[in-house]
Every structure is written in structure tokens, then in C-alpha cells.
Specification:
single chain, alpha+beta, five-stranded antiparallel beta sheet, two-stranded antiparallel ribbon, 2 helices, globular
Length: 161
């Protein structure tokens, strides 16, 4: 009988386990972290499992011919909408969020989901206003469920993005 523990032990012996940002190790067949359930993604080019939704593989730099993309037997590929949802997380316009310390609390003013034309970066962005000093900033920093928190959800009737 196969269990998480036996699968993980075999993966560690073969050096194929992937480490999640929460600190847990997982067998390569797992598409989400055993401990925190954060989804992983598998590189279509080399099959490397990654615990966070980055735009490029850190092993092979995602270099493969376009005709090879699509559903593959070695793993699930996120659609653009799914990837954007992992980047934005629970943030909505009008909500207040934080990065784990008092000076980092911000209100979301706008979310632009993209996509933008090929080669234009960033492909999505979020505009925020920091509570500490009122400054506004537009960036494309993804939501990190291990660090980021919902401080105040938007008032009733708000929350479109």
C-alpha cells in the first residue's frame, strides 16, 4: 500500500521530492502540497514540479517548441485565468490587506488582470494605497498565503476587479 510517507521517502531517496514554500516536502506525483494544499505546477518542458506559480521554470527556463504545449501526461498546466487567480489571491478592489507587519497594510485600488500583448511586462498588475503614508503603487507581486493576510474585506457592494 502506498502512503504519503512511503511516497515521500522514495522521492527523497531518488532526489525527486519538491519543497513547498511552507517548508513541506512532497512526492513528485503530488500536484498540491500535502501540508498547506498550495497548488504546484509542472513545467511542460522538463517535468519539474514547482510549488509557486512563476512565469518561467527555474530548471530549464521553459524552453520548448510551441507545438509541444498543451495537456501532457506528466502533469497539469494552469490556464492563464487560473495562474492569475493564484497571483491575485483573495484580493479585491476596496479590500485592505497586509504583508505581516503594521507598515505594510494597503488598500486595493485597481486590479488589471491582463493579458497584455506578448513581450509586454508585467502581464497583470495591481494598484494599491499604503495606509502608513498614503503613497500609491502599481506592482505585480503575487499573493503569498504564508505571508499575506486579509485585514478588512471590502464593504458590501464593493469588490469588483
Amino acid at each position: 500500500m502506498t502512503t504519503y510517507e512511503t511516497d515521500l521517502a522514495a522521492a527523497k531517496r531518488s532526489r525527486t521530492a519538491w519543497g513547498c514554500t511552507c517548508g513541506a516536502d512532497n512526492p513528485p506525483s503530488y500536484d498540491a502540497c500535502h501540508d498547506c494544499q498550495r497548488p504546484s505546477w509542472t513545467c511542460a518542458a522538463c517535468g519539474t514540479v514547482h510549488p509557486s506559480a512563476r512565469s518561467r521554470c527555474d530548471r530549464c527556463d521553459s524552453s520548448m517548441p510551441a507545438e509541444s504545449l498543451g495537456d501532457r501526461e506528466e502533469g497539469f498546466e494552469m490556464t492563464y485565468a487560473e495562474w492569475i487567480a493564484t497571483q491575485i489571491g483573495p484580493r479585491v478592489v476596496g479590500g485592505r490587506y497586509g504583508h505581516g507587519h503594521a507598515e505594510s497594510v494597503y488598500e486595493v485600488l485597481a486590479i488589471e488582470r491582463g493579458p497584455r500583448p506578448l513581450g509586454v511586462w508585467p502581464v497583470w498588475d495591481i494598484t494599491v494605497r499604503y495606509s502608513s503614508d498614503g503613497r500609491e503603487r502599481t506592482h505585480c507581486t503575487g499573493w503569498d498565503p504564508c505571508r499575506d493576510t486579509v485585514v478588512t474585506p471590502p464593504a458590501a457592494g464593493e469588490g469588483s476587479c
